Amino acid sequence: MTFDPKPHWRALRSVWRMLSLTVLLLPILLVVVLGDWTGLFDQAAVPLFTVGMASLMLTLWRFRLYKRTLIRAEGLGDSAEAASAWAVLHRNQSLGLAAAALPALIALVHYFCVGEAIPLVLLVIVSLGAMLLYRPPAAWVN
């Protein structure tokens, strides 16, 4: 019995799409629900933004592991070890996407504390840019 990687490529793409959409829509929903929000703790503005930008470094470390696992899983092809390599790849993509979403989650806390939309938008853009690293190559999915 040969191993078919196509369902795994589709699953990687689906997970990436869903999490990217969540990171994009959750801050928009927060701004719509809270509306003209005055922050509860204005002194947290700069520290929270700094922590949000610094959390991007976790993504870079996770991406290195994801890239190695991606190359290994693709290189195994139809072999018997391919299924376990794909399981590791799914786990590394999920952990990497969670690390990439961290600046956006910190931005939500920042908006709740401060009420400023500009840092929210900047940190969400940073998160989406980091999430692009974990997008499966389109040529391999088809």
Radius of gyration: 18 Å
Which class do the helix and strand fractions yield? mainly alpha
> Mean of the pLDDT scores?
87
H/E topology pattern: HHHHHH
What number of domains? 1
How much of the polypeptide forms β-strand, as a percent range? under 5%
Broad shape: elongated
Helix content: over 70%
Low-confidence stretches: none
Q: How far apart are the termini? A: 21 Å
* Assembly form of the protein: single chain
Q: Biggest sheet, in brief?
A: none
Quantity of strands, as a count: 0
Number of helices: 6
Keywords: Membrane, Transmembrane, Transmembrane helix
Organism: Halopseudomonas aestusnigri
Transmembrane segments: 45-63, 94-111, 117-134
Protein name: MFS transporter
Structural summary, described in words:
With 142 residues, the protein is mostly helical. The protein has one domain. The protein is built from six helices and no strands. The chain is elongated, with a radius of gyration of 18 Å. It starts with 5 loop residues before the first helix and ends with a helix.
Keywords:
142 residues, mainly alpha, 0% strand, elongated
